[in-house]
Design brief:
The protein contains two helices and 15 strands. By secondary structure, the protein is mainly β. The protein has one domain (2-176): Jelly Rolls (Sandwich), CATH 2.60.120.
Length: 187
Amino acid sequence: MNIEKTELPEVLILTPRRFGDSRGWFMETFNATRMAEAGIAIDWVQDNQSFSAARGTLRGLHYQAPPRAQDKLVRCSRGAILDVAVDFRDGSPSFGRWVAVELTAGNGRQLLVPRGFLHGFVTLTDDVEVLYKCSDLYSPEHDGALRWDDPQIGIDWGFAAPILSDKDRAAPLLADAPRPFRWQRPA
């Protein structure tokens, strides 16, 4: 597995090796031992899958607050998405900065979004399936969201009027949102 750092060093791109022949291909998307050897020792407890029928469907920006915060390992198994992570750790030198990575069924890339980061994606094609692992179970009382189009964050989603849920349409701006995550200076 190839592991690349992004402009936000805690957010990683993981690209599994594919082995192909005339029948198609095979790839190992997760191996706990190999991840731990690479310094990624996360206990995954829940797998999620979403389907979006139309191009331009935007889901995010979401987080789950402590003590139920989640790391996520996201991949696209059908179609293509622009996957986004935003540093949401109060006091972080990169607070409010974001990184966007195109994840497709074809490129096999995965994005590791650590706890303390907002997560969202927009579909670049019709009929998109997204799979992601979470390090904690879903907890509705810890669920949170920020506005996808917050001008203080300034994400270029590539869509002026995406398809949104009522929850995402009504999410607060960064200036009005609680800040449940605190940045810890590395030792």
